Every structure is written in C-alpha cells, then in structure tokens.
Amino acid sequence: MKSWVIVILLLTLVGMPLFAVMGGISVLSWLGSDLPDQRFVRFIAANVLEDKFSSSPILVTIPLFTFVGYLMAESKTPDRIVRAASAVLGWMPGGLAIVCIVASAFFTTLTGGSGVTIVAIGGLLYPALRRQGYSEKFTLGLVTTAGAMGLLFFPSPLVMVYAFIAGVDVTRAYKATFPPGLLLMVLLCGYAFWEGLRSGIPRARFDLDEVGKSIWHVKWELATPLLVALGLVTGLMELDESAAAAAVYTLLVEVFVYKDLTWRKVVKVARDAMTLSGAIILILAMATAMTNYIIQERIPQAILEWFTARGMNAAWQFILVLNVFLFILGMLMDAFSALLVALPLLIPLAATFQVNPFHLAVMFLLNLEIAYVTPPVGLNLFISSFRFSRPIVDVYRVVLPFVALLALGLGLVIVVPSLSSFTIAGDIAEARAQAAQDGVAPREAWLLECVQEDTNNLKPCSKEDISKWGADGLGIAAKEAKKPKPTGDVVPAMDSGPDAGADAGKDEMDDLLKQMLGSGDADAGAPDAEAPKAADPMDDLLKEMLEAGKDGG
C-alpha cells in the first residue's frame, strides 16, 4: 500500500472529514497513476457527473427526509412517540429501542440508503431514548446500527438490482431475503430487550385505554410513513416525490396542526437540515469518485483472483473467500456500486460452485449491512459521528456489540443455507412438477436452485439431474434426436462430420434441382405423354448447374 494511503487513514482516525479522506484518496490515486495520460484530477468527476449519480433520486430524497427528521426532532414529536411506544411496548423491557429498530428497518427499505435512516429516524429517536434512561453508549450504537437494517425487505431497490443482474424473479428474491432480514432484526431486538432489563428502564403496566389515547395523540406523525408507503406501493409517486409529499405534510402538521414550530424556527431547522444533507451528499460524491478509481484499477477483481490463485477449489472455500471479499468491498463502495461492479464478476464463480442464487443474494446484502457499521471505514459510522457530534473513535467503540450480533446472524446464514431458500422450496417443487407433466427438463427449477452463468442456457444443479440430462442440460435434445422423424420431412437427417455434412448438403441440393426439373416437365407435358417436348432454356440452365455441381464435388 502506498504511504499516502496510510497517512490518510491515520488522519481519518484523528477526525479528518470523510469527504476529504475519500476525495484525497481519489485525487492522489489518479495523480499517482502508472499511465501518464491518466494523471489528471478530472478523472474523479467521471462517475459523479454520470446519470447514475447526478440524476439519482437519492440526491433529492436525502435533503427532504433530513428536513422531515429535523422538523420532528425540533417539535414535540419525540415526546408523543415516547408516550405511544411506552403505552404499546412499555410493559416490555427495551420497548422504545425495539421501536427504533423496526422504524429504521422500514425507512431503510424505502430509501435503500441507511445514511438517510440515521438522520431521519436516529435523529428523531436519539433524544427520546436518552430521556427514557438508555445509556449514551447503547443509544449511539443502536441508532448507528439500526440504520443498516432493511436492505433485505420489500421494496428494497438493492434486491431489485440483484434479481436483475442474477436473472432471477424479483418476487421470489423478496420471499427468500425476508427470513434472514427478520433474523437480524430479532437478534437486535433481543439485545434491546436484554439492555432494557439490565439498565432497569422503567416499565409501565399495560393500559388499553392509554394505548388508544396515545396512538390518537400521535396519529398525524404515524401518517407520515404511511403516506410514503402508499405513494410507493400504489405507484402514484416515486421515491423522491414521496419524500417531498412527506416533507410538505410534516411541515403543515407541525406548524398548523400541533403548532409546535413557528416559521422562524422552521427557517433555522431548514438551514441545519440542508447543512447536514449537503455534507452527506458531498461524502457520497467523493465515495463515487473513489469508486471510479477502484473500477479502473480492477481492485475487486485483483482481490478475488488472489484467493483463487491459492487453491480455492471447493464450495465452502469459495463461500468463505466470498464473504471476506464482500465485506472488504462493502467498506470501499456504496451498496449500488458494489452490486454493479462485483456481482457480474461473482456470477461465473458462483455458478461454477453451484451456489444457490438466493443464498448468494443474502450473503451479499448482509455483508454490505455489516460493512456499513464496521470500523474503521464503515460509511454509517462517519454519518453518525457528524449527525450526533461525537468523535469517530467513540462511535467505533459503541457499535462493536451490534457488529458482533450482525456477524452472528451472517454466520447462521452461511452455515444454514436453507435459511435463504426454504421459502422457495414450493416454487421449485411446482416447477419440477410442471416440467415432469410436460416431459421436458426442469429448467425453471434449475434457475431457482443454483446460480446460472447464462440464463439463456440453463444447466442442472444436482447429481441426479446431471446424470439424467447431462452436465450441459442438453440430454433431452439428444433423446429427441434419436426419435424417428415424422413422415413428410423434406430435409433428411445429416450424418456427423464435416465430409458427411458436405456430401449430404450436395445430395440435398441435387435432389431439390431434380425435383424442380421434374416439376417443370410435368407441368409442361402435352396431352400426349409420348409427344416430344420443346426445349426449355431454363431446364437447360438448371441441368448445366447440376452437372457442374457434380463435377466440382
């Protein structure tokens, strides 16, 4: 590693802004390129100015959701949410912390970006959690980590991107990724439950009357996520449009319904929100610029090739190396870039080792979730440090227990692959039954059972299918070739081999020309079959062609 990279990483540990870290790496990487024609700073703008980044709805969504979070945080919304959460879950240890996890997963699912969730949901619930008695260490770690939840749930755009590249049905992909995502949420909720017990957070007696009153009191805030969800589910609004609707709605509610904020306060909130969102967008821009260099230098490919060159020849070895590779990749790139850059590279290898496509999807996205919150360069750590004005080293320490829980969940998924595929078992059985009924190869089942390098040329996965259909899945074609051709076929079967094919092709041409000549004779025949026929110039020409073809053979 170059010395300047080490210097920048050391500056990161002492508080150097993340955008400066990524921008500095990008600039110095291009200026230090081995190729003279690439030693220009302009190369860091290549990806930033492309439509994938500059036209992304996330650039509009981030400021809008940041504004919503700041409006709610500066109003009495946290108090109303605490009251409602205490009424509904207050009898449980860790009730409000569990609410934070569920709400964060919901928002991350909608936006596809956990940084937005830290700002919008974490900024909203952080003061509420502290007022209820949770420690600074637990609260900061919770709001930082919970933002990474939700990448596996519908309608996460990351699952859509994976399904498109891997060639699998997106609905089945969501069915497969839901249980592992739920597993991670259960692990975090269990930790919140234990923390509530350990810290002695006050617990209230369940009161149905208080539940009704508190929910009614917070009804306007509860409608905000519902507005976003309905806009997306019905297709009436895109993500950025739903965020804009939520921002306008929240502004009207806080100013005119609850009257918690004055217009002077709103101006201050908007200024603070735009300052934060501008910093986040700058971080994303510099991360995208750094991605441009990583792609140019083929760094992900080099990492993976290094492992394969050292004897990786078994499925378990590939899965182990794959997870290490994805974890490193998740700390270097944003989720969308990691999918678009690494997945096309991994598909052929995963197909070679016959990895289940949904198992690959879950491992891919879980590694991204964990990488987001893992020191030293997890993106969410820096966003949380900036949002809550805490030194980055402090954030490193508080997230470690949460990272351990996420790693435990990933380990369970790796060891028990069926966690990622048991919801698809019915679809596979149905595909096989339909194929058996039609008397064809179960190609649809193969697509669901193992990663396919070429979705236009599906291959079997199990030993039974390979022995029956062949390793290339073309056994059925060989069987059909042995069947007698139905009468009436014009073109006879051709023998194998180049000479036989040439002879057969010449014979077929001769027969065709003879048929044409014969047809001409029959059509031109006189009433008296014995009568001589006038010479036809076309017949003479065809005969000459036929004789020339025989002589050339």
Description:
The structure is a single chain. The chain has 553 residues and is mainly α. Among the domains are: 56-283, no CATH class; 422-482, no CATH class; 496-518 and 535-553, no CATH class. Helices cover 72% and strands 0% of the residues. The chain contains 26 helices and no strands. Helix 8 crosses helix 20 (392-415) and helix 15 packs antiparallel against helix 16 (315-332). It is globular and about 75 Å long. It starts with a helix and ends with a helix. The model is unreliable at 477-482, 487-506 and 519-535 (pLDDT under 50). Residues 5-418 form the TRAP C4-dicarboxylate transport system permease DctM subunit domain. Residues 481-553 are annotated as: Disordered. This is TRAP transporter large permease subunit.
What's a concise summary of this model?
Residues 521-535 have a biased composition (Low complexity). Pfam families: DctM (PF06808). The protein is an all-alpha fold and 553 residues long.
What secondary-structure arrangement, pairings included, does this model have?
Layout: H1 3-13, H2 18-31, H3 51-54, H4 58-74, H5 77-89, H6 95-111, H7 114-132, H8 136-146, H9 157-166, H10 170-199, H11 208-217, H12 219-234, H13 239-257, H14 263-296, H15 299-308, H16 315-332, H17 335-352, H18 357-372, H19 379-387, H20 392-415, H21 425-438, H22 443-449, H23 463-469, H24 475-482, H25 498-524, H26 537-552
Uncertain ranges:
477-482, 487-506, 519-535
Based on helices, strands and strand pairing, what is the structural class?
mainly alpha
Radius of gyration: 33 Å
Average of pLDDT: 75
How many H/I helical runs? Answer: 26
Share of helical residues: over 70%
N-to-C CA distance: 67 Å
Name the overall outline. Answer: globular
Sketch the topology as an H/E string, one letter per element: HHHHHHHHHHHHHHHHHHHHHHHHHH
Strand content: under 5%
